[in-house]
């Protein structure tokens, strides 16, 4: 007799108690989903992940302190097997790309009907990507009409990919076998070419333009 499939273990990360209660209730009605931990901040989520096995983390992008984008990047760095569903009330282009650049597998808008959240959690757990239909146009628009920019060299692309993965300059230097000062020069060139104000914006623009 085939053993039953274990439920998907979910970590909820939401600072508003009312919203968190609603998410817990929605997920708790599904036999294949189980909320195993809850956190009110990104920092608390990282502490919980060190103790509680989790398959999918549902993150509010607007967390206090460490926001959802940074929390997602930290989770991916420490627990790469954990899938991430980013949850937000806003349909903002930059937020969408920042969330995807941080490693989130799914991006879902908060809404009254729970079906899309359930779909997002299950898709992420299965290793698939999911975008709420109401924000998918941002990604499609970025693919169809990318910003023009000078091409990046292979080395600049390597540096940018490591930036998007959340690595600081010292780690990038060690991974590529170059000096920290050389990394800084590459970063500066990338910022100029992508017309980005900082490393995070560069990663977001690169993802939007299909450079990563």
From TrEMBL:
For this UniProt record, the keywords arranged alphabetically read as follows: DNA-binding, Phosphoprotein
Taking every annotated instance into account, which residue ranges of this chain make up the domain Response regulatory? Answer: 9-125
Q: Report what the protein is called.
A: Response regulator transcription factor
Instruction: Supply the source organism for this entry.
Output: Deinococcus rhizophilus
* Pfam families hit by this protein: GerE, Response_reg
Q: Which residues carry this modification: 4-aspartylphosphate?
A: 60
Q: Where is the HTH luxR-type domain?
A: 145-210
- Residue ranges the record marks as coiled coil: none
């Amino acid at each position: 007799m085939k053993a039953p499939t274990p439920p998907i273990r979910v970590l909820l990360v939401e600072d508003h108690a009312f919203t968190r209660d609603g998410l817990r209730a929605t997920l708790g009605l599904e036999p294949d989903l189980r909320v195993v931990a809850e956190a009110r901040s990104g920092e608390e989520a990282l502490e919980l992940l060190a103790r509680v096995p989790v398959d999918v983390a549902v993150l509010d992008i607007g967390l206090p302190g460490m926001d959802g984008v940074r929390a997602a990047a930290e989770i991916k760095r420490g627990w790469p097997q954990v899938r991430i569903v980013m949850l937000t009330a806003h349909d903002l282009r930059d937020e969408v790309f920042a969330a995807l650049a941080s490693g989130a597998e799914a991006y879902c808008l908060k809404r009254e009907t729970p079906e899309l959240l359930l779909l997002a959690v299950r898709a992420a757990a299965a290793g698939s990507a999911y975008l709420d239909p109401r924000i998918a146009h941002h990604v499609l628009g970025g693919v169809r009409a990318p910003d023009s920019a000078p091409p990046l060299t292979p080395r600049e692309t390597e540096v940018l990919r490591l930036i998007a993965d959340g690595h600081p300059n010292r780690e990038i230097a060690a991974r590529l076998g170059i000096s920290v000062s050389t990394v800084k020069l590459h970063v500066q060139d990338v910022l100029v070419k992508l017309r980005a104000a900082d490393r995070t914006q560069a990663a977001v623009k690169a993802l939007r333009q299909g450079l990563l």
